[in-house]
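Hey team,

Sharing the Tetratricopeptide repeat protein run so nobody has to redo it. Sequence (439 residues) first:
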Amino acid sequence: MQVSKVCLALAGWVVAVVLPLPVRAAENSVAVGQLAKEVTVLIEGMGNGSGVIIQRQGQTYTLLTAKHVISSPDVYEIVTARGHRYDLDLQAIQSFSQVDLAIVTFQSTAEYPVAPLGNSDQAVEGMPVYVAGFPGQASTIRRSVYNFTQGHLTAQASEPQADGYALIYTNHTLPGMSGGPVFNEAGQVIGIHGQADGRYQQQDPGNPQVFIKSGFNLGIPINTFLALAPDSIASAAHSLSPSAEPTPPESAVSQRPEAAPASPRLVSTRPPAVTNLFLQAVDHYQRGDLQAAMQAVQSAIRQTPDFAQAYAIRGNIRLIRQDYPGALTDFSQALSLDQTLVSAYMGQGLAQSRLGNREAAIAAYTEVIQLNPNYGLAHYNRGVALLNSGNAEAALTDLQAATDIALQENNPADYERAQEATQIAARQCRQSIRTLCDR
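Structure output:
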């Protein structure tokens, strides 16, 4: 079967794990994951969100979440990892002006651990970070499944953007994880996740199904919250030593997180002004203001010419504007500075595909999959490119992998797309894959 007009999923910026973790870091991630699962909760209402337990006083538990998760008038329920449900006390919601944060409470006689709060000022660019939360449900996936993802801190700005967002990280997140905790390797909460890489930018006004994903996640530093928090919470957090190890739940005692240094390759010495420009570029990009995003990233590159991620986001902007040669130049420059930058390989694949260079596109997606075998969107894109090249058997393998990964991640949109593409590749229906363009 030859499909002459096949659109690829445009996702220039989805990154989960870009490097194999050393043994010690892998052990830490298991321990942090066990702790995170005990303290992260699902907030059910008109739309799902997440939160983290940060205090217990008697039978009253306090959660920290993103304000937008509970901003709509509704009846909300707290669902813990153990499956217990509690009413959220609407009268006890405390929000903060100009910051996308809120604290809420629920009552329970059960024993739940409390997440230790870290010092976000000590977070350095390149350090491993973890995000926990519950992606939303849909018709194909009818329950929210806990997700725990690994990534790296890309930047921490000294001048936060709107609503207090200042952390940028590469973790693969999904809608519904907003309000969930961002952990360091010691299992301490250093931020609250709030703006996911699920924001899309339309590439072609004539084809509303073609999008490009920003791929960057934004979070609010925990120190921003502590500066506004009630004294009982702030004083308890400040009483902890900055280097203290958290006490994980009993099930995780044998896998206690240990502090591990960030890889020297990943630690940046960028001037704060450049980091602030990069945050501005990401924020403008996610809000759809490509002109402002381009101005900010251009300034960042002029001041720091070896900023790989900046070249990659400029490449994405050029990709959206259909300047494919310019985009390829930027992605190549990004990869010359960082050969593990998954987003740049994805961008290369997308640009090559739009130029009709299928073999080059397949090669780029293969690089992504070698770096991160569980990157479903790369399998999807490569599968479509392989199908267009006449290799239906290999395409089916990739598309089935994309389907399986989306199901595991509780990602209904990607699941439906990959499942439909698999049926087309297997000649189970006559629909054109052209209608499956998404990101």
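The chain has a mean pLDDT of 80.

Ping me if you want the raw files.
A.
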